[in-house]
Design brief:
302 residues, alpha/beta, six-stranded mixed beta sheet, 9 helices, 9 strands, 22% strand
Length: 302
């Protein structure tokens, strides 16, 4: 009996905002790459992460939540990134909440998926939150909307069903050589991941006090000659002076909290000690500026 041939391809993860796409991707590759928060539009760029196993290699494409609100250029950019991903993929993972109610937003997504000739795996998230008997009505409701290649219930947070989902994905990937070496887990440069870690901590700590109109720019990231310390200067960009005050906090307390929370994960990322300095800058209406969007890393050509 001949050995099974290596498979390698692209799997897009799509779904409505806050359904758990980034958590699922982190779980699938067994390492945190994509940032998570309970805020909509946490993911803004397409992030590629790589799983390499005995069967081959899956390159996951995590995308911004499919949004209908494109009141600014950042929203337009995010929607373009999301829809463009469908044509890049060999298989689509459509992540949904465990509910039999299918709203207009979900129906728009299903219509979009029907327009491309790509197999779709329906992934029902948060199965640990519902009784097993509640799964059948959910599956029936979605089957009436679309003929899915597979249906897999999981818990992205707890890691339930992840191995089954990985095996499922490989069935739809073409035979071929791996795209990346086995040590690669993401195509994102360290600077980009560092900026995203800082933005995640800001979103988590600020909660609803500041709208999600913040960005983080790494202005300097340099390892000292002895290799013992990496100096990082990062700017948190916001749109209003009032937001700047909230981000800094009384006596700089909030900025210190963000820095402390981010430093721990950045040190794990760079495998060394970090001297992190955070600044806050006001750039009014940056989400509607082509130049600033490009400077802050939101560029169609990247």
């Amino acid at each position: 009996m001949s050995a099974e041939k290596n498979r390698a391809g692209f799997a897009a993860i799509i779904g409505r905002p806050n359904v758990g796409k980034s958590t699922l991707m982190n779980q699938l590759i067994g390492q945190k790459i994509a940032i998570t928060s309970h805020r909509p539009q946490t993911t803004r760029n397409q992030i590629r992460t790589v799983y390499t196993g005995e069967k081959g290699q899956i390159v996951f494409l995590d995308t911004p939540g499919m949004i209908r609100d494109t009141r600014n250029k950042l929203g337009e950019y995010m929607k373009k990134v999301s829809t463009g991903t469908l044509s890049d993929a060999d298989v689509i993972l459509y992540l949904v909440e465990p509910s039999a109610f299918i709203g207009e937003g979900e129906k728009e997504l299903i219509a979009m998926m029907k327009s491309v000739d790509t197999p779709v795996i329906l992934v029902i998230n948060k199965e640990d939150k519902i009784e097993k008997t509640a799964l059948l009505p959910i599956i029936d409701a979605y089957r009436k909307e679309m003929d899915f290649a597979e249906i897999v219930p999981v818990s992205a947070l707890k890691g339930i069903g992840i191995n089954d989902l990985t095996d499922c994905i490989f069935k739809y990937l073409p035979e071929g050589e791996n795209f990346y070496d086995e040590d690669t887990v993401t195509d994102q440069p360290v600077r980009a991941i560092t900026a995203e870690i800082i933005r995640e901590k800001a979103l988590q700590l600020l909660k609803d006090e500041v709208p999600h109109g913040i960005a983080v720019v790494i202005e300097q990231m340099k390892e000292r000659p002895d290799g013992m310390l990496t100096d990082i200067n990062a700017a948190i960009i916001c749109e209003k002076d009032s937001h700047k005050g909230i981000i800094i906090g009384k006596g700089g307390s909030m900025l210190k909290k963000i820095g402390s929370a981010a430093r721990y994960e950045i040190e794990e990322l760079v495998e060394g000690h970090v001297n992190l300095k955070l600044f806050v800058k006001v750039r009014r209406d940056w989400r509607d500026s082509d130049l600033m969007l490009k400077n802050f890393g939101y560029n169609d050509k990247t």
